[in-house]
Design a protein that fits this description.
heterodimer; A: alpha/beta; 10-stranded mixed β-sheet; 22% strand; B: mainly alpha; MetI-like fold; two-stranded antiparallel ribbon; flat
Chain lengths: 279, 301
């Protein structure tokens, strides 16, 4: 009898933990301000803008007496934080929607190119925009149809709501409903890169900043994905990087001024983004 | 006659004792209430957020459960593929995990010599302590490439990868709970069986295991709960495709993954629909706990 009671209490405890653990997949961390030396600027949003913002902030904090906190939680969450005042600045890699436009104002801090990537061994180096669309909507399902080996294509896409995905779909011109159903959905640029780098069949898209030698980049309509080609308007897969904000504090304004200055834009170029000054 | 001041002193110390007693009782009560309160807060919050689209915005709950299209940007919310994926993944994990876990538990409690059990037992318990995301990384780095390269799958992120990872993850739960249950079987059962001429293995499967049945069932149900609620490990190896799986090589998106994957970007109805996904998941867990309660109350008879 005693054993049974012990049993029951263990089970009860375990089931309670179970219930609790099963439910906590919910809300993500939101930007939080902490007190430190000087004042704090809290920034949150897009995982595409994030790496660039980190580099800009690191450089800026060397000279200015401010503390900049950056949370990469996705464009929509970042914009929401800016609207709610949870963050001073939201980062977005998609343009604002109608409800959001009235609440916050955008500042373009740089441009980004999106590049279509494949496995490092993939021989296909050039696709037309139409072929890209047909691959992502499932009309083309074998690499041999676009001049590659005779093997199935595995499409890798970002999750619904991602700024990169919205931008990519808008430019390539297909909707979420048209995306091939059995595509792998990966969260974040890094995840797509890893998935594509380890699968010979895969094709995906990432920001310019994430390009490295583990993956092979694809030319679009014969145009190489480079910053120069984006600025000259030749490379079609590009989008603006936005900082969205309400009325700015003095410190935040100074940070944005720094980003838009020549020095800031130089850092942006080093980070793989495309500076706005050369437009 | 006792000295009056002494009596006063004694009363005072007694009073102090009662106050301390009272305070500590209340303290315990408050601690107990915190867990119950957080449970209700979570349930309330999830249900409040998740039921909103069906009550306020007029979405159909039937379409939500049985719809096969999940395209938030086009206002289509159907989680049927994910329900199927969750169920398949859990059943698959059970098929692999239960026999291994059960045999391990039997081995540890009945057969293994002490030195060996001393190595295996902590190892199994340590397995339970590994953060789930590490299981996911392991799956992504070892299982997924293995499936791709050695079994010739087009993509390693698949139902079978999820099943393998979940089967490993549920092992510690099954082993520890089942082992406790088997150990709880009175020694006289075994002695009686052996005395009647049954072999040791015969004794284990015909006498000990049936006697520990309810505990073993509880172990399985707990393992099941672990598998169905697991998120981080699954998100990395599932592939997260929105299809109803027709083979174990298809990539899938279980309920948990859907929530974790899209919550970061979701707002408005999309976010509420993710909470609604949480309600469905929660219902699964509730049913499991109900079954568990039934099993353990039966075990008392």
């Amino acid at each position: 009898m005693l054993k049974l009671r012990k049993w029951k209490s263990i089970l009860l405890l375990m089931s309670l933990t179970l219930i609790l653990t099963a439910c906590n997949g919910g809300e993500e961390d939101e930007g939080q301000a902490s007190s430190g030396n000087g004042s704090t600027i809290s920034i949150s949003g897009s995982t595409s803008v994030g790496p660039l913002a980190e580099k800009l902030a690191a450089k800026y904090m060397e000279s200015a007496n401010v503390n900049i906190e950056i949370n990469q939680i996705g464009s929509s969450a970042g914009i929401t934080n800016a609207i709610n005042g949870v963050s001073d600045i939201g980062m977005s890699s998609r343009s604002l929607e109608s409800g959001e436009e009235e609440e916050v104002s955008p500042t373009i801090i740089a441009f980004d190119g999106i590049v279509v990537v494949t496995h490092a061994n993939n021989k296909v180096k050039d696709l037309t925009m139409d072929e890209v669309k047909k691959i992502f909507t499932g009309e083309i399902t074998n690499w041999k149809e676009v001049g590659g080996k005779d093997m199935e294509i595995v499409v890798v896409s970002r999750e619904d709501g991602s700024g990169s995905r919205d931008a990519f779909q808008e430019i390539v011109d297909y909707s979420s409903g048209e995306l091939v159903r059995n595509s792998i959905i990966a969260s974040g640029n890094g995840n797509i890169k890893t998935t594509v780098a380890t699968n010979e069949h895969a094709i995906g898209f990432i920001s310019f900043e994430y390009i490295d030698e583990t993956i092979s980049t694809v030319h679009i309509n014969g145009v190489e994905p480079t910053a120069k080609n984006v600025i000259e308007g030749k490379y079609p897969l590009s989008r603006p990087f936005l900082f969205v904000h309400k009325d700015l504090s003095e410190e935040s304004q100074a940070f944005i001024d720094f980003i838009l200055s020549e020095a800031g834009q130089e850092i942006a170029a080093e980070a793989g983004a495309i500076p706005i000054t050369e437009e | 006659m006792p000295n009056p001041s002494e009596v006063k002193q004694k009363n005072k110390s007694n009073r102090l004792k009662y106050i301390m007693e009272f305070i500590s009782e209340k303290l315990f009560l408050i601690c107990a209430l915190i867990s119950v309160l957080s449970l209700f807060l979570i349930i309330g919050f999830v249900f409040f957020k998740g039921s909103n689209p069906f009550i306020a915005d007029g979405y159909s709950f039937i379409d939500f459960i049985f719809g096969s299209d999940w395209i938030p940007s086009e206002d289509k919310y159907g989680i049927f593929p994910m329900i199927v994926a969750s169920i398949y993944a859990t059943i698959g994990a059970l098929v692999i995990g239960v026999p291994i876990g059960l045999l391990t538990a039997i081995f540890l409690s009945e057969i293994a010599p002490k030195p060996i059990a001393k190595i295996i037992s902590p190892a199994v318990q340590l397995l339970a302590g590994i953060p789930s995301v590490l299981y996911g990384v392991f799956g992504l780095a070892i299982i997924v490439p293995f499936l791709q390269n050695n079994l010739g799958l087009v993509k390693g992120q698949s139902l079978i990868a999820v099943i393998l990872v979940l089967a490993i993850m549920m092992l510690p739960t099954i082993v520890t709970v089942a082992e406790t249950a088997i150990r709880a079987v009175p020694k006289t059962y075994r002695e009686g069986s052996l005395a009647l001429g049954a072999s040791p293995i015969g004794t284990i499967f015909k006498v000990v295991v049936p006697a520990a049945k309810s505990g073993i069932m509880a172990a399985i149900v707990l393992g099941l709960g672990r598998a169905i609620g697991e998120t981080m490990a699954v998100i990395l190896v599932a592939g997260n495709s929105l299809i109803i799986p027709t083979s174990i090589t298809d990539s899938v998106r279980p309920l948990t993954t859907n929530i974790a994957l899209e919550m970061g970007y979701a707002y408005g109805t999309h976010q509420e629909m993710l909470f609604a996904t949480g309600i469905v998941l929660f219902s699964f867990i509730l049913i499991l706990n109900f079954v568990l309660a039934k099993i353990s109350s039966k075990g008392g008879k």
